[in-house]
From TrEMBL, chain A:
The lineage of its organism: Bacteria, Pseudomonadati, Pseudomonadota, Gammaproteobacteria, Pseudomonadales. This is Cytochrome b. Residues 7-176 form the Cytochrome b561 bacterial/Ni-hydrogenase domain. It comes from Pseudomonas tehranensis. The chain crosses the membrane at residues 12-34, 46-64, 90-110, 142-164. It is a multi-pass membrane protein. Gene3D superfamilies: Transmembrane di-heme cytochromes, Chain C.
From TrEMBL, chain B:
This is Catalase-related peroxidase. Belongs to the catalase family. It is an enzyme of class 1 (oxidoreductase). One of its GO terms (molecular function) is peroxidase activity. The keyword Ligase does not apply. The chain crosses the membrane at residues 20-39. Keywords: Heme, Iron, Membrane, Metal-binding, Oxidoreductase, Peroxidase, Transmembrane, Transmembrane helix. Pfam families: Catalase. Its EC number is 1.11.1.-. Residues 49-360 form the Catalase core domain. SUPFAM superfamilies: Heme-dependent catalase-like. It comes from the Bacteria. Its cofactor is heme.
Length: 178, 360
């Protein structure tokens, strides 16, 4: 069996689905905390269930990642770029996993019921504690900005591969049978 | 294995083509970053944000670390709510079904200064958190006035700005508040009320009004616009002790509760079609049907520095299934601004006076 030249179809589906969800989520979060209008409320009501959906999908995605074979990076890629690619992918996975947990944790620490809709309630995962809330809430905000920056770098690097280096890296996520 | 990128299918890019492609990438990344900076308010400095609302309160009252940025002086109370069952046909909320629901509340003064004398304002407030058996909560913040001075967060912000100290004199411009009210005729009902309002000697004798409109929703999905409030039951209006000093309200409350629990009736006023549900500055006509939803029983006080109410954000949009927010724009603004105040003060818990004194 030869090394695959493309990501598995399920991996590609999850990548693009989550790309949309994560970018939507970042904009929803940023808009929500900067608004006092009704927008604040309906963005918040989107933010919570979408965050839990991302948490579930990233777990599926990690399973897919470790059970399918990834196309290798081009051999002529400079060492620092290969390292940056691997580190940024690890950071993306870590942040997609941690941010929903921080959000869930901060609502729990505030002593608020964790409501995904008017009647769907999740259990608290952190005991109510003001200082824990402040810490989790700040971490949620700062790490969301880090995720946005990482997404921008990831996007720029993907386009660099596709338009400047013109290797198969971008193509491996866009199409192909494997 | 042949690495595909080493295949000779890539003639080097010319300088202009390379520049064009790199610029393309830069434009796409910059567009995304710029949109984000607009959405988060960085590129939209005129937008009224939760932080701006809380900043103006801090500007007017000073920063008192660990305290709420508004309604800063208060006391925690603990008790329960006994449902009468009268609200059941209108709302599926468990609080109206169960005979008893535990409550953690907080009486307060509507000022951002935690050391304001109790007679400095004629308004008192009561916030409540009902914790239902199913884990859902109903939080509400009520005030002793019947209407809010204004109907929108923007007008509330301007009213706060009118009370801000002038950088030149260090004092508020005395003409600013009258000018604000001249430009805001919607404040008339509030101004009419405040003309005769006097600082009460007790929290126990006051009626507290939710002011904002909400919807009760029953299991059939029918929505009824409502406003709620609590009215004292069989309260002894005579003062236990005449008001003395700056902190008589808490002393009075402790004395009264030592003699037994205090009770309020929870009244839920049903709107008629056409009554304004999006404007807290407008009262509803007196003849509207009022449900007696049950009795609020408060049993004991706790210090606000370490009592249960300290870490509760009385966000009016934390509601159980069966109660929903209305189109009132103040609701979302309160929810958003309380979140900003809550983050600030929870970051400063260790700086509260009670926590300072206990240190060596």
């Amino acid at each position: 069996m030869s090394t695959p030249r493309h990501f598995a179809p399920l991996a590609r589906l999850l990548h693009w689905l989550m790309a949309l969800m994560v970018i939507a989520m970042l904009f929803i979060g940023a808009g929500m905390v900067a608004s006092v209008s009704e927008r604040h409320e309906w963005l918040l009501q989107l933010h919570k269930p979408l965050g839990i959906a991302i948490l579930l999908l990233v777990i599926v995605r990690l399973v897919v990642r470790f059970t399918t074979r990834q196309p290798p990076l081009p051999v002529d890629l400079p060492g620092w770029q290969a390292l940056a690619a691997k580190a940024s992918h690890a950071l993306l996975y870590a942040l997609m996993l941690i941010l929903p947990l921080l959000g869930w944790g901060m609502i729990s620490a505030a002593g608020d019921p964790v409501m995904l809709s008017s009647s769907l309630q999740l259990p608290s995962i952190v005991p109510a504690d003001a200082q824990a809330f402040a810490l989790l809430r700040k971490a949620h905000g700062y790490l969301a900005y880090l995720l946005f920056l990482t997404v921008l770098v990831h996007l720029a690097a993907a386009l660099f591969h596709g338009w400047v280096r013109r290797d198969e890296v971008l193509d491996s996520m866009l199409r192909g049978k494997g | 294995m042949v690495d595909p990128s080493s295949e000779p299918s890539r003639p080097p890019l010319g300088a202009s083509s390379l520049a064009l492609r790199l610029s393309g990438i830069a434009v796409i990344v910059a567009a995304l970053a710029g949109t984000f900076a607009y959405v988060n308010g960085t590129l939209d400095p005129q937008r009224l944000t939760p932080n701006a609302l809380v900043n103006v309160l801090e500007k007017n009252n000073g920063v008192h670390p660990g305290f709420r940025r508004n309604h800063s002086k208060g006391v925690c109370v603990v008790g329960y709510f006994q449902s009468s069952g009268e609200a059941r046909p209108y709302s599926s909320a468990q609080v109206f079904m169960e005979p008893r629901t535990p409550v953690v509340g907080r009486f307060a003064l509507p000022s951002g200064n935690p050391y304001a004398p109790d007679n400095s304002v004629p308004i008192r407030s009561l916030a409540l958190r009902f914790t239902q058996a199913n884990g859902q909560q109903w939080r509400t913040g009520m005030n002793s006035m019947p209407v809010f001075p204004v109907g929108t967060p923007e007008a509330f912000y301007q009213l706060q700005q009118a009370q801000s100290p002038d950088p030149a004199t260090g004092k508020p411009n005395p003409a600013a508040v009258p000018a604000f009210f001249a430009a805001h005729p919607e404040a008339k009902p509030f101004l009419q009320w405040i003309k005769t309002a006097k600082p009460s000697a007790s929290y126990a004798t006051e009626t507290y009004n939710g002011i904002n409109a909400f919807y009760l929703v029953n299991p059939a999905g029918q929505r009824q616009a409502v406003r709620w409030g609590v009215v004292p039951v069989a309260v002894d209006g005579t003062q236990v002790t005449p008001p003395q000093g700056a902190d008589f309200l808490e002393q009075d409350l402790v004395q009264r509760l030592a003699a037994g629990p205090l009770r309020w009736q929870l009244n839920i006023t049903l709107a008629n079609p056409g009554d304004p549900v999006n404007d807290a500055s407008k009262a509803w006509p007196e003849d509207r049907k009022v449900l007696n939803a049950g009795t609020l029983v408060l049993e004991r006080t706790q210090s606000q520095d370490d009592g249960e109410c300290r870490d509760i954000n009385y966000d009016p949009l934390i509601l159980p299934n069966g109660i929903e927010g209305s189109e009132d724009p103040l609701l979302a603004a309160r929810s958003a601004a309380y979140a900003s105040s809550y983050l600030r003060r929870t970051s400063e818990v260790s700086q509260l006076p009670a926590n300072q004194e206990s240190r060596p």
